[in-house]
Amino acid sequence: MSWPRPGMIAAAVATAAVWAALAAPAVAVAGPAVVPSANPNDPGSAELVERPAEYDGASVDFIGEAVGDVMVRGENAWIHLNDDAYMYENVEKGAPLGGFNSGMPVWLAAELAEGIERVGDHSNEGDRVRVRGTFNAACAEHGGDMDIHATDLEVVAPGHRAPDPVHPLKPIWALALAVIAAAVWYGERTVSLRELSGAAKRR
Amino acid sequence: MIIRPRREDHLVIGKYTGKILVGVGLLMVVPLVTSVAFAEWDTALDFVISMMVFFIFGFGTQWACRTEKDLAWSHGLVVASGSWIWATILGALPHYLSGHEGSYLDAMFDVMSGYTTTGLYLIQDLDHISHGLNMWRHVLTYAGGQGIVVIALTFLFKGTAGAYKVYVGEGKDERLLPNVVNTARAIWLVSLAYLAVGTTALWLAAMWLGQAPVRAFLHGAWVFMGAWSTGGFAPQSYNTMYYHSVLYEVLVLIIFVAGSFNFALHWAVWTGKRREIVRNLETVSFAVSLTIATAVATFWLAKLGVYPDVMALARKAFYQLASGHTTTGFSTIYSRAFVTQWGPVGMAATIFAMAIGASAASTAGGIKAMRIGLITKAFFADIRRAVAPESALVRERYHHVRDHMLDDGVVRIAMGITVAYVTMYGVASLLGMLHGIPVIESVFEGVSAGSNTGLSCGITAPSMPWDMKAAYIVFMWLGRLEFMSVFALVGYGISAVRGR
Fold first, then answer.
1. How large is the greatest C-alpha to C-alpha distance in chain A, in angstroms?
2. In A, which residues are within 8 Å of B340 by CB distance?
3. Half-sphere exposure of B338 (CA within 13 A, CB side)
4. Is A147 helix (H, G, I), strand (E, B) or coil?
5. Burial level of A1, CB count in 10 A (0-12/13-18/19+)?
6. Nearest-by-CA chain B residue for A125
7. Region of A20 on the Ramachandran plot (φ > 0 left; ψ -120 to 50 alpha; else beta)
8. CA proximity to B111, closest of B98, B100, B122
9. CA–centroid distance for A134 within its chain
């Protein structure tokens, strides 16, 4: 077997580097555009974070998807409401990418939090709930956290299961690549063992 | 005259790069098992596809590059830096296949951020990603913290003398034990022991705070990995503010401060030398600069009246500053709150902390407390020499595991790397300014990327210009590998093309 000359390898490396340099921006530019969400809140979470002093202590009416956990702490609970591009539908259900998540932590009575039956995660679109309460730019009760202390909660739309469907081509790709990987591993191992036994015989 | 690398040089680099790629591919077993456990079949297939691609490249390269030659120093540097690029290109596949990344460049950004323990991210709708992908994000930052070369050294190298050269190329030069492979295993022993203890502590705390047992365990493991590796990735978009708990914050803080310490310091403490913590130049230097940064930020935030009481002020200021100084990047405030609440002085204090960073040969980034300590000691030694009688011989010592003489060679190296970091911070900041981003925000984000911290003031986002994303990938890579091995890779590329 003849080996490629170092010059050829260098040329290949250089070509790969140039390709990578050119392709990276290309795929970046070709990436899907960020779609803004229709936010039902005024102010929304982004506005509250951008101008906290202006809204500090204000009464707010805030709608968002409950995500993560309902963390009950004694008679109260923490929930997190996202009012971002995914509050109506998450990526697994086909929503276009719309930037980072955005939302607000909400502190409320545990009995109100019990009204939430489903929280959003990979397999679930969480309940969409409306809370009414007071916005705190730096909450005195919670170590300076930015939060909403809610006195009222209403489930606007119940959540639902949103399982991630298997892309039909992925099993085929996985199988084909596994076969190739096994062949390459077997080839590498066979050649290595042959060289090792050859070296042992020479000794 | 530039000497062109010979065929044997390419072969030895290819062979060891292949070994490291196989090692990184094996890491995907962890998120694959997680996906299967939670019946996330689409995600599981993403990991099968990605792992097979790693194996094809890894075994294929070893097959094509068979050689008995061992590594030279230059090979080690090239293998280390080159492996990080390949591991980033291939490791981005699960991110991209998940459909949560805007482009392959965004996926590569997140993976390089993970390996380099930076913690900046571009993944979208983080709150809905699968457990498998969340596990991968955290495993790669945990493994990146120990060093992906260390992984390969631990599992795939068999006592080769050349292994040490790859190890050094990854920005580590501590030999805890005489054999570098045993050193790599010792690093993993320390890290896995802390993983067990730290995850258990966070798991119990999270259950007490209201999380269900399984989620509390997963969050405990992920937050531990993000903290110990000083990575700063968290499973929810709210980062560590999500837990709203001083207990959780204290636990996380202990873990990321421990993670930011030099592995040699950990080893010394493990082997009974507990006084090393207060004697080591790195920990002393770190404590002094953290105190200064926290004092400035606290004074400024008190002046602005951002927080309602002293406890809230101290809690917020110390957590963000310690997170910045250890280059962790965890936060309990919104990213934009640095701009809208902390203001320019609060941000400047955070920039100062991030720029310095924590310990050398740890999971942390930045200039490193040791170099700042050495330069400061050398500065004061020069002043003493200037005022001392001409016949006086002024000698300076410093303590790092044992006592060392502070000679000019050590100071020159520390100064050289410091200048390289400051230059990189300057370039990163300038790039943001050229895009019309305000100066303080450009500097904050640029220093955060270059020092592998990951705190953001809102600049890093999927809508960020592509050239800033690409440049930040390079800055994260340069910062983590501390320049030398990256320069060696560039030199190798030039000599392959132009050498004779």
1. 86
2. 49-53
3. 24
4. strand
5. exposed
6. B128
7. alpha
8. B122
9. 29
Q: What angle do CA B325, B329, B330 make, to 5 degrees?
A: 115
Query: How many CA atoms does the CB half-sphere of A95 hold within 13 Å?
Result: 23
Cα B446 from chain centre: 15
Residue B162, token pair as written in the block: 């050349």
Per-residue pLDDT of chain A (203 residues), as tens digits, is 334 444 444 444 444 444 454 444 444 434 444 444 578 999 999 999 999 999 999 999 999 999 999 999 999 999 999 999 999 998 888 889 999 999 999 999 999 999 999 999 999 999 999 999 999 999 999 999 999 999 999 999 999 999 889 999 999 999 999 999 999 999 999 988 887 777 777 66
- The ipTM estimated for the assembled molecules is 0.90
- Strand A147-157 to A128-136 pairing: antiparallel
CB contact set of B297 (below 8 Å; sequence gap of 6+) = B317, B320, B321, B342, B345, B346, B349, B350
Residues of A in contact with B346 (CB under 8 A): none
Angstrom distance (rounded) from CA B76 to CA B68:
15
- What is the pTM (predicted TM-score) of this model? 0.90
Residues B446/B428, Cβ–Cβ less than 8 Å: yes
Q: How many CB atoms lie within 10 A of CB B213?
A: 11
Q: How far apart are the first and last CA of chain A?
A: 24
> Residue A143 is nearest to which of B48, B306, B312, comparing CB atoms?
B312
Which of A52, A122, A187 has the CB atom closest to B341's CB atom?
A52
Chain A closest-CA separation from residue B413 CA (Å):
30
> What's the rounded Cα separation, in Å, for the pair B248 and B245?
5
Q: Is A132:A149 a contact under the CB 8 Å cutoff?
A: no
Identity of residue B130: S
Cα B34 vs. chain centroid, distance in angstroms?
Answer: 24
Q: How far is it, in rounded angstroms, from Cα A93 to Cα A77?
A: 29
- Nearest-angstrom CA–CA distance, A86 and A195: 57
At a CB cut-off of 8 Å and minimum separation 6, what does B411 contact?
A: B374, B375, B378
Asked whether B261 and B358 are in contact (CB, 8 A), the reply is: yes
At B1, is the secondary structure helix, strand, or coil?
coil
Closest Cα of chain B to A68: distance in Å?
7
Q: B406 near B374, Cβ under 8 Å?
A: yes
Q: Are strands A124-125 and B397-400 parallel, antiparallel or unpaired?
A: unpaired
